Amino acid sequence: MGTNSGPTVRRRRLGAELRRLREGAGVSVEQACELLRCSVSKISRMENGRVPVRTRDVHDLLQLYGVTDDAQREAFLALARESRKRGWWHTYHDVVPPWFEIYIGLEGDASSISVYEAQLVHGLLQTAEYARHVIRADNPEIADEDVERRVALRLDRQNRLTHESPPRLWVVLDEAVLHRPVGGTAVMRVQLEHLIKRAELPNVTIQVVPFTAGAHAGMGSTFAILGFPDPTDHDVVYIEEATGSLYLERAAEIRHYRLKTDYLLAAALRPDQSLEMIARVTEEMK
Q1: What is the pLDDT of residues 129-154, one digit of tens each?
Q2: What is the pLDDT of residues 163-199, one digit of tens each?
Q3: Could you identify which of 38, 192, 236, 269 might form a hypothetical disulfide with 273, taking C-beta atoms 3.0 to 4.6 angstroms apart as the criterion?
Q4: What sign results for the dihedral spanned by CA atoms 153, 158, 162, 165?
Q5: How is the chain split into domains, by residue range?
Q6: Chain-centre distance for alpha carbon 58
């Protein structure tokens, strides 16, 4: 159980190990609840890595599950301590809802990010001005200073694309994204130029599903699949909604969205053709 990752992934790892130990010991969720004097939902959130776990609770659970090896116990307690540390994004906690903090943490530790976007340019590829208009449109009553804080967070997330050991980002866009002039023609033209420039990075691939593809596997289903360098950290499918998000982690769910991605890639233009289309649309906006 390494700890060379961010607190969100560490919480997921700890939760998965605690579930494995509980099931292996034949202990029910209700028995764990009785020990910690908590609700069933809290045990569920702990085992799903949605909340940090107190080291005292880990200590007590290890006793209940019959873990007596000192080295193993210390490894679990160290992971619990690490998982409670604040992520870099905590400085933006005033403008980040709790459900999105989870995603930021997962994104920051991901070694691969596969995305399908039907309406907008993905956040990791947005310019500041484009992001500003998207945030304002989604939150018409938000204060100007909060808009700028959210834009700053989005740009901070993008920095990892050019850091050492960046994630492999593969973005599939519906052609509609290219033609929606978010912020007006001038803003959109700069955004499209930015896409072409970002695609020059060796770790970034952009493909477009053209209108001529007709009905395709991604219709009505914007999503992201996050993969991690440690094989013990299973993939996550992230689906954002208006007031929250879904995190799908079951093997069957991951396979479904991996297959959906394969069909999308088959329907999309090749990367070079996609960039040609983006350049053509950009030229038409001048």
Answers
A1: 999 999 999 999 999 999 999 999 99
A2: 988 999 999 999 999 999 999 999 999 999 999 999 9
A3: 269
A4: positive
A5: 7-83, 92-284
A6: 27
